Amino acid sequence: MAGLRFSREHAEHIRDVLSGRVAPAPARDAATVALFRAGRGGGIRVYLLRRKATMAFAAGAYVFPGGSVDPRDTDQAVAWAGPSPAEWGRVFRADEATARGLVCAAVRETFEESGVLLAGPGPGSVVADTRGDDWEADRLALIDRSLAFADFLAKRGLVLRSDLLKPWAHWITPEAETRRYDTRFFVAVLPEGQRTRDVGGEADQVEWRRPAEALAMADAGEIFLMPPTYRTLSELARHDSVESVLGEEREIVTVLPRVVEVDGEFRLESA
User: Residue 203: how many CB atoms within 10 A of its CB?
Assistant: First the structure.
C-alpha cells in the first residue's frame, strides 16, 4: 500500500501514540449502511456519498450513509420489529443497549443521509414514500437533534424494521488517528417504492455505482475510498444479484488496522 500522507501536526500525534507518549483517543460507537438495489441489466448498484472537503473526518471520501450513535438511540421506547437488540448484540459481540443504539443509528442515519427509511406501520410493511415537506422537516429535526428517533417513529406510528438490515462487518479506526470510531457495517436493500435523493448536509455529491466500477475509479485515483469502504465494495462486487448478497453467510470479525512508520513513511497494516 502506498504511503499515507498527514499534516505535520497529525504526524506528530501519530508518533506520540506509537511511542506511548499519548494515549489513543476513545473510539465512538457508529453504524454505517451499504444501501443497494438491483441494477438495470443485472448486478447490483450501491449508494455512495462524497463527503464535503470541509469535513473534519474523511474529507472528500466516498462513503456509505452512517454516523455516530446518538445517546438517545439506545432508548427502549423505540418501536421495534425484527431481530431483537439482544440478538444483534450476539452478532456484534456487544451488550444489548449498545446493539440497540447501533441498529437505531443505522436506520436513523440512512434516513438522514439518503431519505430512505427502514421502518413501516407494522412488522410486515415498510414506508412507501418519504418525499414531501413534512418528511423533510422531520429529517432536518433529526439531524439537528431537536427530534429523537424514538419520538419520530412514535409520531408517525412506525416501527423500526431491524429485519431489513443484514450485519456485514466491524471496523475500528486505527489507534493513531485523532478521531476514532467503532463502526458496525450493515447492508440493506432499497425498499420498494422508496427513492434516494440528494439531501445535502455532510455530502456534496451522491450516486449509485456498481461496486466494481467504484473500485476501478478508486484504483485510477478518480475517487477516494477509505479502507473499510474499499473492502466492503470488494466483497459486494463478488455478487451478481440482491439475493446473492442477502444469502451470504457472514462471520463478523473485528478489524483494527495499525498505522506504522517505516523509513519515515506511514503505512496502514490490517490486523
Answer: 19
If we measure between CA atoms, which residue out of 64, 2, 80 comes closest to residue 228? 64
The CATH superfamily assigned to 8-269 is Nucleoside Triphosphate Pyrophosphohydrolase (3.90.79.10)
Q: Are 52 and 204 in contact (CB under 8 A)?
A: yes
From residue 119, how far is each of 5, 44, 85 by CA, in Å?
A: 41, 22, 16
> What SS3 class is residue 253?
coil
Tally Cβ neighbours within 10 Å of residue 149. 25
Tell me: the pLDDT tens digits for 78-130? 999 999 999 999 999 999 999 999 999 999 999 999 999 999 999 999 998 89
Q: What is the pTM of this model?
A: 0.90
Grid cell locating 139: 429529517
Residue 168 cell numbers, joined:
456485514
From first CA to last CA, the distance across the chain in angstroms is: 14
